[in-house]
Each structure stands twice: as structure tokens, then as C-alpha cells.
Fold this sequence. Notes:
This protein is mostly beta strands. The chain is 0% helix and 58% strand. The protein has strands at 6-9, 15-18, 24-30, 32-37, 40-45, 48-53, 58-62, 64-70, 73-78, 84-88, 93-97, 99-100, 108-114, 117-122, 127-128, 135-139, 142-146, 152-156, 162-168, 170-172, 179-183, 189-193, 198-201, 206-208, 212-216, 219-223, 226-228. The strands form eight sheets. The chain has a four-stranded antiparallel β-sheet with strand order 4-5-6-7, with no helix packed on it. A hairpin with a 2-residue loop joins strand 5 (40-45) and strand 6 (48-53).
Amino acid sequence: RAGRLIPVKSFEEKWGAIDLQGNEVVPMVYDNVNSWFDNFVTVHNGNNISLIDLTGRVVLSGNFWDISRYHDFIVTSRRSDDKYDIYTLNGELLVTCNFCSKDNYGSIFALNDRPHSYRLYDAARRQYITPYYQSLEIDGEMTEFRDKNGKAGMLSTTTGKVLFQGDYGSLWGFRGHDYAVATDNNDRSILIDRQGKTIYLAPDGYELSASLNLIDSDRQKSVYTLENTST
């Protein structure tokens, strides 16, 4: 199919890649070649990994733990200092950080660039869109945060705007559903909606579980269970 290179191995046990017409695009000089995704291959020589496009151009090369594609961006993790870098598909460096969350939303990533501090970064706009939080966990269009006091809340992944404040002792994200399980300031188990409104308060002595997904007539339902904490 179009937009693909095929790994091949020579009789000398070295790897390269050809296009669909049989033309050698990546010379057979590497220890290994992975057909990674459309438009690219990764090649390995020892601990060095290179990203090569359909024309044979080396887009990125270095002593990496890993090179991965997220949406229209490339994320690498370095062996030398365990730093993460985000690049465009053309190999242009956008930002460096201590940690890059694997749960990006389109061009938006949760990055750690100082101890115990996270911000949302929009690689398309090339800017940070939130202040620092103690933690951030992207959950689709919404991102769970914990503030400096350890309280949980939710913000918009695309705008960084706080949807409801961190008033919860714990919060298990929505994960695509309409509701989430949380505990209030009195440590009571509650169910909240996407506006942060409490729609169900568990009876004394009971805790709500996280949701289970059931399929019923092509409609996905969220099912929650109550556990008696004494028994």
C-alpha cells in the first residue's frame, strides 16, 4: 500500500528497507529495522535509534530508549538523562521535559518539567495552557488534576479551563462516561456528574466502586456497585 517501507535483510544479516517498487530506500547496514507506521521506519544500531521517512531522510537519530508517534508528533525518551522530547513529524524540537504522559489528547500532553509539578502543553499551538498542578491525568476532553493541597478536580483538556474545583479527597476519572466516583470532604463516597454536581450519596458504611462497562442494545451503560465496608 502507499506510504509504507518494507524491512529487508541482506545475506550479511544486516537490515534495510525497500519501497513497494523494490527500490532500496534505507541501506542494508543496520542491526534491525521496524516498519513502525505509515511514512516512517525506525532503524537500530546498538543503542542508537533513527527515524527515517519514505525518501530515506533521517528525521531523528540518537541514543534513545524509545521513539513513538502520538497524533502528529514524535515523542522520544533519552538514555543519557531520561529526559523526554516532543518533535514535529519533520524532526523540529518543540519542548523538553522530565516526563511526558502517554495519555495525550490530540496535540495536548501532560508534561512534568519540575519536581512534582505538571502542566498541559499544546504542541500544535506550541504553548502551555495550564499553570502547574501536583498531578494531571488526561481523560479525553477532561483532565483530572490535583492542586497543591492534594484535592482533586477536573479541567478542560483543550482549553485548560477549570470545570470544577479540587474539592474532592479522591476522584476516579470519568473515562468517557457521564459520571465519576469521588469522596467528599467528609470522606463519604459519592457519584458526581461532569459539572461536579453530586448526584448520588452512598449510605453510611458503604463505598461506591469504579464503573463497569456493559453493552445493551448498542448503548453503553455505566454500572456502579456498593460495597459494605464493614463486611
